[in-house]
């Protein structure tokens, strides 16, 4: 499995080829099946916008745009704009209809003036390998900046590190060992289970914070999706010794999965509202 399509312009390590897109699509479908919503029920869309025509929604770090595609089926008249630092995974824009736009944006950079206060809802999902404890506030602030007064931010993550030790022992299970290795490749992500505090620090009122483990019926595909993600990470490890070690742990984890083990990361949804 090669990640040769990964752009060298940005540090995103999980690849953007068809394996990576399929992995994200499966994850999206599993999450949607589990939660049963694309927009959390605490988000009350402005009632004045009966025909949805003035409703503006943004998805930042949209990737393949699959969340947007599904949202067009619920809100066909709404204007939905997708943004990502890379357009490599975008579908042809016309497949999503005339009310959708897909363009490039680096959410760590100062927000372009034309995006300020533009949206009723801003959605972001899966910055767990991208934002660090040091810079997550930049992202929350920029997302808040995109909201109209009274608009809502929905942020969805998987908590992939917080319950693991800082350092693993050789005797630890492969998941613990791999997670501790990930700490050396990816930013610190203590922010994931402090998203409500991150929102409040930026002046957003927290409407809800949900954490859920994958339901038993979804554990198998969820686990396979996670292991495909690990394989993609294994592909980009440069040090050959580390790469070999990592692939061995992955093989052990896959073997454990046959005996009922699964990646029990919690899904996290945080919803906040801007004053107004
Ligand atoms: C794990 S993927 C998630 C994609 C999508 N949100 C989903 O849930 O399927 C993370 C996405 O964030 C994008 N990304 C990385 N750095 C970014 C940045 N600085 N600004 C905007 N998007 C970024 C990546 O290109 C990638 O598409």
TrEMBL record:
Family matches, as Pfam families: Methyltransf_25
Gene3D superfamilies attached to this UniProt entry: Vaccinia Virus protein VP39
Residue ranges of domain Methyltransferase in the record: 57-151
InterPro entries attached to this UniProt entry: Methyltransf_25, SAM-dependent_MTases_sf
Protein's recorded name: Methyltransferase domain-containing protein
Taxonomic source organism: Letharia columbiana
């Amino acid at each position: 499995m090669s990640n040769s399509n990964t752009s060298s312009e940005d540090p995103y390590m999980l690849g953007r080829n068809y394996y990576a897109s399929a992995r994200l699509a499966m994850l999206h479908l599993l999450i949607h099946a589990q939660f049963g919503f694309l927009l959390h029920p605490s988000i009350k869309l402005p009632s004045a916008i009966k025909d949805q025509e003035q409703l503006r929604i943004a998805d930042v770090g949209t990737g393949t745009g699959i969340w947007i595609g599904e949202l067009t089926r619920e809100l066909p008249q709404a204007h939905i704009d997708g943004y990502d630092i890379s357009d490599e995974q975008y579908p042809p824009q016309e497949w999503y209809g005339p009310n959708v736009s897909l363009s490039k944006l680096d959410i760590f950079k100062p927000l372009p003036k034309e995006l300020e206060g533009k949206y009723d809802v801003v959605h972001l999902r899966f910055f767990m390998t991208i934002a660090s404890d040091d810079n997550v506030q930049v992202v929350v602030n920029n997302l808040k900046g995109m909201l109209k007064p009274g608009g809502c931010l929905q942020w969805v993550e998987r908590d992939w590190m917080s319950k693991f030790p800082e350092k693993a022992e050789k005797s630890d299970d492969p998941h613990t060992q791999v997670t501790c290795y990930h700490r050396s490749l990816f930013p610190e992500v203590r922010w994931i289970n402090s998203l409500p505090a991150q929102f409040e620090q930026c002046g957003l009122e927290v409407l809800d914070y949900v954490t859920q483990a994958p339901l038993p019926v979804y554990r198998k595909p969820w686990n396979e999706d996670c292991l495909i993600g690990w394989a993609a990470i294994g592909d980009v490890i440069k040090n050959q010794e580390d790469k070999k070690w990592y692939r061995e742990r992955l093989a052990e984890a896959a073997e454990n999965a046959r005996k009922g083990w699964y990646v029990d990361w919690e899904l996290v949804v945080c919803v906040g509202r801007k004053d107004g």
